[in-house]
Design brief:
- Three copies of one chain form a homotrimer.
- By secondary structure, chain A is of the alpha+beta class.
- Chain A has a single domain (5-162), classed as Nuclear Transport Factor 2, Chain: A.
- Helix content of chain A is 26%, strand content 44%.
- Chain A contains three helices and six strands.
- The first copy, chain A, has helices spanning 5-33, 37-41, 62-72, and strands at 50-53, 78-93, 96-109, 114-129, 132-150, 156-162.
- In chain A, strands 1, 2, 3, 4, 5 and 6 form a six-stranded mixed β-sheet that branches.
- In chain A, strand 5 (132-150) and strand 6 (156-162) form a beta hairpin.
- Chain A starts with a helix and ends in a 9-residue tail after the last strand.
- Chains in contact: A-B, A-C, B-C.
Amino acid sequence: MATTLADLEARLTAMEHIAAIKELQSRYWHNVDRQKLDDVRNCFVEIGAVIDMQGVPPCNDREDFIKVLKANGGKPGFHSLHTGNNPFITLTGPDTAYGVWDAFFIGIDVGDRLTYQLSGEYKNNYVLKDDRWYIQTQRFLQTSLLVQSIAEDGSPKVVTFGLPDDSVFDK
Amino acid sequence: MATTLADLEARLTAMEHIAAIKELQSRYWHNVDRQKLDDVRNCFVEIGAVIDMQGVPPCNDREDFIKVLKANGGKPGFHSLHTGNNPFITLTGPDTAYGVWDAFFIGIDVGDRLTYQLSGEYKNNYVLKDDRWYIQTQRFLQTSLLVQSIAEDGSPKVVTFGLPDDSVFDK
Amino acid sequence: MATTLADLEARLTAMEHIAAIKELQSRYWHNVDRQKLDDVRNCFVEIGAVIDMQGVPPCNDREDFIKVLKANGGKPGFHSLHTGNNPFITLTGPDTAYGVWDAFFIGIDVGDRLTYQLSGEYKNNYVLKDDRWYIQTQRFLQTSLLVQSIAEDGSPKVVTFGLPDDSVFDK
């Protein structure tokens, strides 16, 4: 059966949506690292966003999440990088999508002389409203964690190692 | 010369193939990190997959590779992340493709108190069968390696450093 | 209003351009890590490329930049990986584009027994000439830095930590 213009447009639109969702999620990480909270807020749906992340109090609204970020972030001398990897974005309807990402995180806390290396996975739901994609649900689980403290002479010491359910965690 | 519907479809199909290959390779890494061996198996062609990876016994069939992964993986308290970066995917025929990736790997072995940081490159051949892409050949070379052991008091010590052809390797 | 073939082609061409720009930037990082300087040179416009990167003398031509790389790179036993993350590519005209990337870098200097972990952001301008994209301007700022020296017995010590404007930098 011959391809039609409408077929091609549907396929192209699907690719554009997936690209827009990847950019949305990247924008979230990019702005969280810079404590740009207005830009973070705008990544989530206005009402009823669910943010359920290991290590973070659960939030049922983007404003709650922004409050958590405000209370915990923006520390002088704290530098971080989130990277999103191995993305799998699936369009689940005309205006809904689901995404799985492997995330890598490094953080350096100069004030408290700590370094962080974290990996985890995001399993997020996205929704299209007025031609823009938003995060509807953000779920995060850690898959590895390594925290080191740096003594005055520069000597590092591992203070957290593995995952909470490893028996030697925090040894 | 005016573009035709057939021209556009060919260009769109090429982009869809490249996206599918990226997702295939990401699925491999995502599932290797979780020791989901059925999902790993399904990334490779059923017969005659060549897996030639530095640090891994060479395999000429996906079942051999799965046996290697089964024998070496799934250790309790071992946590890892593979990320695929800087992808270059080239369609080399109607149902074949070649890909080069820079990979980054971190591993934490809580039981043996070791941490790993590895980089390397994958040069893979992909094949399309019944509308699905598979890995036909997977070649991996290390480009850097750093292994540390963590003493009981948390003090790290570098035990492997550089690459096998550096003279100070394993100092 | 019905979509036309010309509309679809314009949308598809935009996606192809963005994919080509991502591949160009990845090619830059991939080849810098391998000190493949001819391939690095070919990523930049022939005349008037501006390279303004924190920690690197500013260059107003790709040949100047290649000289800097030649003078500082290619050290035996130096192994590195650059990864490009969270890309935002915007087409700003028929033959111009702007891109923001979060970059992650690890380096291992076996000779001087140093390890590097760096993050930063690239804000680059791209230009299309004869159907190929080139980097016109490359601006890089560090967002975190961690350098460790490795003693003969393998003990690491943090020698640089944070960013130049943190008061404890180089403690």
